[in-house]
Specification:
The structure holds two protein chains of two kinds. Chain A is mainly alpha-helical. Chain A folds into two domains: 37 residues; 145 residues, no CATH class. In chain A, 46% of the residues lie in helices and 9% in strands. Chain A contains six helices and six strands; from the N terminus they run H-H-E-E-H-E-E-H-H-E-E-H. In chain A, the strands form two sheets. In chain A, strands 4-6-5 form a three-stranded antiparallel beta sheet. In chain A, strands 1-2 form a two-stranded antiparallel sheet. In chain A, helix 4 crosses helix 5. Chain A is elongated, with a radius of gyration of 22 Å. The N and C termini of chain A lie far apart (66 Å). The relative contact order of chain A is 0.13. Chain B is 60% helix and 5% strand. In chain B, the strands form two sheets. Chain B has a two-stranded antiparallel ribbon with strand order 1-2. In chain B, strands 4-5 form a two-stranded antiparallel ribbon. Among the domains of chain B are: 42 residues, no CATH class; 185 residues, no CATH class. Chain B contains 19 helices and five strands. Classes of the chains: A mainly alpha, B mainly alpha. Strand 3 of chain A pairs parallel with strand 3 of chain B, so a sheet runs across the interface.
Chain lengths: 190, 601
């Protein structure tokens, strides 16, 4: 029995060194050489200053910006140190109420828009940090942003196209628009 | 569903099937008793390791010795993770200065990671230091998966060997699983994940400005930590301006790779693979969800190769596919149909070229419906438990699929190693039932299945069922259990049932609304996770020992062939009947009742 315990301790120690020290250090070393930007958080940089991460969504409530998907993080939306979804069940009335409120907020910012609201724009994302919205959700907001900014819709549509990514390799995932990138483009910061 | 959705499902299944033979062949070589090209390559490292640890690689262990070694090794690993969490505040690589984890939470997490469950009561980015993540949690990701493979390989030897006591050497099987299988695959996957955007560094969290400032709303607490109430009885809140975001970094990719490959599932971040840093692109998603089923599927082939009849392995894999594919499609259809409670709100839930549509609550834009459904089904078929969408917000039927897949005993792919040895327990039960029908002593792979094997297999099949049912009953009767429920009504019961199913089958996913980081839940789920792992592994090792001691019986006209479609149907029926009979009443009170309410709206 003592022999087994000693063997177990030693094997645990050596495998820990291998998988818990050597392996992450090797991955870190290779990652920092091969993919330095991605390995350090995919920061959007301009003139040496970090403006955000292209992977972590930010909250927007001003009509002049495209809005991100709702975020259920606390104590504020898109809190990147506390990722979470709402975990509201499908029949929970709190979910229906929240969706109604979000539709109302969108209408208040853009009273003339009677089109059906794209579902992703009024439902909370799984992480609370979704950096993207569907092209439909961008389309829905386009006229509002153009009007508030006094720019032509074609002008804004060009920037939307620039921030849009299709399915990866034409097959995987869903087409999507990066909201932070788009709003930085609108502000002329990129 | 759109044509693209079907295409993505088809592509996933096709690529998975294509990996089965090469990877399965490779693993058969790794665990073969005869020296070969693969094991010669790593022989110097192996020899050095064994010498340093005082292990004799040629020692053939009896099943009891094998089980003791497995148990001692895992309990020591469990204690190490517990200790690490309790003292992380004094150790290096803690740039965010996280405090020690509470005793009950640390105990729960240690059991959770040592049992390959990876239930998470804590939020990674707000609780665990970099050191705890890599030296404690990631290490257990490797070792618990390697343990599963080792037990499976020992069981296979029980079928192959004749009239002997030995079923192999646990230390060698552990080391080889880690060295030849888990480490190389993880290294490659981790690097691809970094290329897609998963962080891998040791820097403190990065602070970036918000383009538009936002408002934080916090409830004001009194000295005892209770929320202060105003005259109307409402919580007093305090608002403050937020102008910055703190981006959580660290050695994420290396841990995420093994958490997917080892069917562990414990997220580096709280939102798991829904988090854009944990799973940034559709490609990273494809590879992560492929990794969930990669080893469990390939091990079926390894099994066939090692018992000398590849058709036996394909038959088991076919059984898994027969149950998996319809449930996957069912889940995708339910989620794509959208949430009936939201119709009538002038909302667009239809799938078009511009949006995924469907039930998007708790799902990420880049994954849409179909990738969330593939993931939810794969992660619960296997005992992975990572998520890329919140299962709590799935439609009632969409959420029923993952819950029931867990309740089937984690044998439809299941955990790395543990899924297949669980499935083999069901196979023993299936040939026994078939034997009863024709009045013959049942055989499987040339070994007589007798009372002893049948008792052990029944225990392996029934222990998790009992834990789920009894645990759920305790939780809904105890005020401390009910206190954790987030959603009102029927769905709240589903949260409890899901949690107990997940822990008692070593899955680890959750209906995440449940607040389970309390002493009651940490202890209850900790007990379930422990009992669902080690007694089962020991039971299977006992079968291995008993089979190894038996003679080979030659096939005769009365032998039930176990590689035919007939056997696939028999085995699938056995799994489904046990899963349905045990859980239909509970499911009727949860997701099925909720579906009736939803369509009645």
């Amino acid at each position: 029995m003592l022999k087994i315990i000693r063997q177990a301790l030693l094997i645990l120690l050596f495998l820990t060194v291998l998988t818990g020290v050597a392996y992450p250090l090797a991955v870190t070393g290779l990652a920092q050489i091969l993919f330095p930007s991605q390995a350090n958080g995919s920061l959007i940089e301009h003139d040496g200053k970090a403006l955000g991460s292209s992977l972590i969504g930010q909250p927007f409530a001003d009509p002049k910006y495209f809005w991100s998907r709702p975020s259920a993080t606390t104590p504020f939306a898109n809190n990147s140190t506390s990722s979470t979804g709402s975990n509201l069940g499908p029949t929970n009335s709190a979910l229906t109420d929240a969706v109604k409120q979000r539709i109302d907020a969108l209408h208040a910012a853009d009273p003339g828009n009677d089109a059906p609201t794209p579902v992703d724009l009024v439902t909370a994302s799984g992480s609370g940090l979704d950096p993207e919205i569907s092209p439909a959700a961008a389309q829905y907001q386009l006229a509002r942003v153009a009007r508030v900014r006094g720019r032509t819709q074609a002008d804004v549509a060009k920037l939307v196209a620039e921030a849009t990514e299709g399915r990866q390799f034409g097959i995987l995932g869903e087409p999507r628009v990066n909201v932070l990138r788009l709003n930085l483009l609108l502000d002329g910061k990129l | 569903m759109t044509a693209n959705a079907w295409l993505q499902i088809g592509l996933y299944l096709a690529v998975l099937l294509l990996t089965v033979k090469p990877l399965g062949t490779y693993m058969a070589a790794v665990f073969s008793d005869a020296p070969n090209r693969v094991t010669r390559l790593g022989a110097p490292i192996e020899r050095l390791l064994y010498r340093l640890c005082g292990v004799r690689a040629d020692e053939d262990m009896s099943w009891k010795r094998y089980a003791v070694a497995m148990l001692v090794f895992n309990v020591l690993g469990l204690l190490a993770v517990y200790l690490l969490q309790r003292v992380q505040q004094w150790l290096p690589l803690n740039p965010q200065h996280f405090d020690a984890v509470s005793a009950d939470s640390a105990m729960n997490t240690a059991i959770s990671f040592a049992t390959n469950t990876n239930w998470q009561g804590y939020g990674g980015e707000s609780t665990m230091s970099y050191l705890t993540q890599m030296l404690g949690l990631a290490v257990q990701n490797f070792l618990s998966a390697a343990t599963g493979i080792a037990v499976l390989i020992a069981l296979i030897r029980g079928f192959v060997r004749k009239t002997t006591q030995g079923i192999g050497n646990f230390w060698v099987d552990m080391t080889r699983s880690t060295l030849y299988v888990l480490l190389p695959l993880s290294l490659v996957l981790a690097l691809v994940l970094v290329a897609q955007g998963v962080p891998q560094n040791f820097k403190p969290y990065e602070t970036v400005p918000l383009v538009q400032a936002t408002t934080a709303t916090e409830t004001v607490k009194d000295a005892d930590g209770n929320a202060q109430k105003d005259a109307a009885g409402k919580d007093v809140t305090k608002e403050s301006q937020v102008t910055e975001q703190s981006l959580p970094l660290g050695p994420a990719a290396s841990q995420i790779a093994i958490k997917q490959l080892g069917t562990n599932g414990g997220g580096y971040y709280n939102a798991n693979s829904a988090h854009p840093y944990e799973n940034p692109t559709p490609l990273s998603n494809f590879l992560e969800v492929l990794s969930i089923l990669l080893l469990p599927a390939a091990l079926c082939y390894t099994f066939g190769a090692m018992v000398g009849d590849r058709r036996q392995g394909w038959a088991l894999l076919a059984t898994m596919f027969v149950i998996f594919v319809p449930l996957l499609i069912g889940c995708a259809l339910a989620e794509q149909a959208g949430n009936p409670a939201l119709t009538g709100l002038n909302l667009d839930q239809n799938a078009t070229v511009l949006q995924a549509g469907g039930n998007m609550e708790g799902k990420e834009t880049r994954f849409g419906i179909v990738n969330s459904a593939i993931w939810a089904t794969a992660t619960t078929a296997a005992s992975n438990g990572s998520v890329n969408a919140t299962h709590d917000s799935f439609t009632p039927l969409g959420g029923l699929v993952p819950m029931w897949l867990i309740q089937l005993g984690e044998v439809i792919f299941g955990g790395v190693g543990s899924g297949l040895y669980g499935m083999l327990a069901f196979a023993v039960v299936a040939v026994f039932i078939a034997g009863l029908m024709v009045g013959r002593t049942p055989e499987y792979l040339g070994k007589k299945i007798e009372a002893y094997e049948m008792k052990m297999a029944s225990l392996v099949v029934l222990i998790p069922c009992a834990l789920v049912v009894v645990g759920t009953a305790i939780a809904v009767l105890a005020p401390a259990g009910v206190a954790g429920i987030a959603n009102p009504g029927i769905h709240g019961f589903s949260e409890v049932l899901y949690a107990l199913s997940s822990a008692s089958n070593n899955n680890g996913s959750a209906f995440g609304g449940l607040s389970a980081n309390t002493p009651f839940w940490n202890v209850l789920l900790g007990i379930c996770m422990f009992l669902a792992r080690f007694p089962l592994a020991i039971g299977m090792l006992a079968i291995a020992g008993s089979l190894a001691a038996k003679k080979h019986v030659p096939q005769s006209a009365g032998t039930l062939p176990t590689h035919t479609p007939l056997f696939v149907v028999l085995l699938a029926s056995t799994v489904i009947v046990i899963g349905a009979l045990t859980f239909l009443p509970a499911l009727a009170l949860g997701p099925i009742a909720e579906q009736l309410v939803a369509i009645g709206h």
